């Protein structure tokens, strides 16, 4: 919670091609800002963005699937959509165009790392909750396309990005798999681990995190049943260190926590995640959420050069 009450302004994004809501402190700007993404579930994370605004940041809760007129499925989503959103954000009166971070959880964590690597001139810090270090196959709602015609999650310049295809289950594993196509599986971690054995695909689809022009923080739970986010986060840090990344980078690793480590008030909209056991004990998940949030705030303040009290009305 902020040390004192900060009045927050809610501003709709009034463009037909963008779906999102901007929150910012009512105090005079320009403010540092964070673009906030959700994961597979689609929609926006307005609650989390509002919390960030109460802490002195402007925060754009941006949807990219699952809300009209956006695509229904997470398949070849153009990165240019996010570049347009950042361009819109930069010209808002409350925003400091030179201090923009991106933050996402799960598939949104993969996206945040990818945007930081693709648009380093715009993104100055990245936070990935339970992120991926590689681009994965997209998730269409049609079960046959899902298996027989795999496509990338993202595209750039009209070209699909290289991706790693999901591993096929062994016959003995089929009873463990939900029929909920178009969404990740609660047993998915073993299939992601198996898919990582395709070294050529992983090399082609690995996110070039070393291109990020600023600090990086990744957060994971060691009991993530959805995908192996601790391994992915370690891959991110290893790649940054192998390339001599000159900015701070940190992995917050929580023993016994699962996939749903989140910023406050940013639970996925709708019941999709409630259908799955995504790992972690209740106690470990609570510890991870309570411990990580102050560290995320500190990371953002330091990365975006926010002094105590700056941009929050003190």
From TrEMBL:
Residues 77-304 form the BAAT/Acyl-CoA thioester hydrolase C-terminal domain. It comes from uncultured Rubrobacteraceae bacterium. This is BAAT/Acyl-CoA thioester hydrolase C-terminal domain-containing protein. GO terms for molecular function: fatty acyl-CoA hydrolase activity. One of its GO terms (biological process) is acyl-CoA metabolic process. The active site is at 106 (charge relay system), 224 (charge relay system), 259 (charge relay system). The lineage of its organism: Bacteria, Bacillati, Actinomycetota, Rubrobacteria, Rubrobacterales.
